[in-house]
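Extended Data, record ABC-type antimicrobial peptide transport system, permease component
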Amino acid sequence: MFTTYIKLAWRNLVKHKVFSFINIAGLTIGMACTLLILVWVYNERSWDRNNKNYDTIYHVMCNRDFNGEINTGQDMMYPLPKAAKASFPEIEHAAIVSFGETTLFRSGDKRLNKSTLTVSPEFFDIFSYEPLQGNLSTAVKDADAVILTESTAKALFGNVNVINQPVEINNHRTAYVKAVIKDVPRNSTLQFEGIIPFNPSSPDIIKSETEWVNCGNRVFFQTHSGTNIPALASKVMKLVQEHTEGENPTTRGSIVLHPMSKWRLYGDFSNGVNTGGRIEYVYLFTWIAVIILIIACVNFMNLSTARSEKRAKEVGIRKTLGSERKQLLYQFISESLLLSVLAFVLAAVIVIALVPTFSQLLKEDLVIPFKQPVTWVLVAAMILVTGLVAGSYPAFYLSGFNPIKVLKGTFLPGKQALLPRKILVTFQFIASIILISATVVIYKQLQYVKDRDLGYDQDNLVMVNSTPATDKSFDALKNDLLQTGLVSSVNRTSSPITDIYMSTSGIRWVGAPPSSNLVIGFIFTNEDFAQTVRTKILDGRDFRSGDSNAVVFNKEAIKLMGLKTPVGTKINWAGKERTIVGVLDDMVITSPYKPADPLMLVYENKWSGRLNLRLAKNADLKNALAAVENTYKKYSIEYPFEYKFIDEEFNQKFINEQLIGKLSVIFAGLAIFICCLGLFGLVASSIERRRKEIGIRKVLGASLQQLLLLMSKEFLWLVALAFVVAIPIAWWGMNKWLQNYSYRTDISVGVFAMVGIVILFIALLTVSLNASRAALSNPVKTLRSE
């Protein structure tokens, strides 16, 4: 019997090719969108799962009371992991890991800058990486060792058989390759191209072993299964307090053990509480996937019931020949399931073809989990649910026709038959209007932040990595760069202009509150800072050559310090008395969505991390960069020349919002397209029902415009109703989303007015294209039987 239903369903699909094509197209697009989103959601939730200790790895973080706010930071003190493991049996392994650095690897004539981590001996006991050569456990304990990823080993040596090969590190020491691992998966939080062990005999490390005040590294624990994590966090906090005796701001906060399962999706903290993160986007797009699939199912219902009169006689004849309603239900649901299967097959082909492009768009390596049993369970569930949901209403509706009325030709569905379909189409447009409104608000917020006054000029500002050679010959290098005429100003800093690497709570001055928790970010720099980055000096001056004890603060720092006449004020910091010589305008360096951070610039002319170059206004970029490279190599031939434009680097801070904006545009556009198919079905149903009425009106002299208006207005009010319902929901949702940003745009009436006009135009176009065909038809054909 089931085979018969499938055969009949297939014959019906083939017989009505246009209808079948439109129906399958709607379901295919809906399923493809849903599948793409679910693939992305799966990959977001699969981060770091390559670690065998996934469920017991914790990132040790700290809540600190700074400037009246609780800030959650990753930087911890060097002796903590060793002391914690010795004190608490709940900790199986503990490791200290640097925040990451760029290291110059040299082998023969090859010189490569690679991202590296400096780690303690238990790093590979905690984290899982696939070794290709060597023993990771012994290699990480060797101070003269370096561990390379497969791609780094091939880039340096041409192959991975490199055990005991010498590698020069930063041109000042030689290390030996003791192990090679497979490249770190892109869905891993810790990213690196090489591992360098801490050297326990180094004077800096020996000093750090007892340094509990300064924090400059990350700490990770692997605990035993079943450990009471909150209790362990409290114990670690007490351990820190015992060793610091109130000297460190950490003692005024609390320890947070952040599980690996939350690193990717729950990375945001507010006032010391984990408030979410990317998980909000995962939830958002999961709902979008569900909504789009529902919209596609609604389309199926509308398009199927739109053909009710054409299939009425079929139902009437089947019933007179003895078919029960149950059999008709099975028949129509079989057609729906067959359509669902065909649509899924096409959607799967589309998804497989689009995953590489989608991966490039997201800058992630998306993987379709074919080997996961849950994937096939979801596939079967999607096909079955889609087929049943989409086909249930048409099946009950069509199988309920009265055969006597149908065969007498007196069957007429009536206006009430359109009501369920109108409700469904209205729901479709509500969802689409919300999606489009959200897309516009996201774009508006992104542009609002991008147009923000950053307090400095990013145009033609380039940064290049400093080296010991450039630091040693900085004055000569600077002079040669200026002599090219293609560079207007040169300065150097300890960190890039787009980030603040270091902060301090140790600033003291006359009149400061005794228990001040003031924390200020600081950057080491030299003369011409303000001139190079083109920021305003509000009071005092910029640094001059020889300003060894001078500091410059920004406006926000002076405000927090409460200084009325800052220039000339003496402060004590890092064991030295220093003088404030200037006040700069606030610069947006870290998050573009928040107010400017307090900042202190400290004069330093011995070392740096970055060279900042302001290219001449009218300089040709290609020629200017070539001249900079030639000059750079003149003084630093051992290091590769690598540069970044400040504006491009700063734009990396918008990646999440840009990604969400792009995805929103794509899926909102597809949702509208599917909605138009649904509206097409509803219009077709109405025209089918009113065909004779249209013919009579034409005979009586109705014009094309009058007929189009007559047939359009009953659908356009549905769009208007959807607009009225959707706008409050969209405003509430996007207003809540904007609350995540301190610096945010407002949601104006114009946004929704624009969305309404666009939706109305699309709906009017869809209705008109369908209605015009009926309005232009020959009334003689429709009235022939009269």
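Summary. Residues 57-263 form one domain.
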